[in-house]
Amino acid sequence: MENNIKLKGKLEIVWWIFTIIVLIAVMMPIHNSFKVYPFWTPNIVSIIVFITYARLIFLTKHSLIGYNFPVKLFILFFSIPLTFYLISSLFAFQDFLDTEGQNALIQPEMLKVSLSAIDGENLSNFIRKEMLFFTVGGIITSFMMPFKMTQSIWRTRNRGTA
Question: Which residues are CB-neighbours of 34 under 8 A, at least 6 positions away?
Answer without folding.
Answer: 105, 110, 111, 112
